[in-house]
Amino acid sequence: MRVKIEETGLNTYPDVLVICGQPQFTDTTRDTVTNPIVIIKVLSPSTERYARGMNVHHYRTIETLQDYLLLAQDKQYIEHYSRREDGEWVLREAIGSDSNILIASIDYTLLLQDVYDKVDFASDEDDLPLG
Questions:
Q1: CA 112, CA 128: separation in Å to the nearest integer?
Q2: Reported pTM
Q3: Are 110 and 78 in contact (CB under 8 A)?
Q4: Is residue 30 within 8 Å of 22, Cβ to Cβ?
């Protein structure tokens, strides 16, 4: 599902989005929404810089958005941006399998051990040249 950020005109494809209530579509095609409450992005080397930079600024303009999560794919690490009642955004980090993130807007606790279940992180030794 695509998200249109009405204030900036950007169309984007988050990895996961949550909508509470009825989706607000941009047209009759019904493939683009404007009212996510949670957006989750899995970082990759090619998207990490943009997801932490311009995307954050775009997403913060969505009136309904309450939580924006960035998930690392090379380690157990999540950045969680949440909107406070006064409109300010707060960054929290979760590191390691014993950590969790409370997504208050949907009353859900995301456990890192579940997010990264069955993910095999390559060790640094695997990246060393042979010889």
A1: 28
A2: 0.87
A3: yes
A4: no
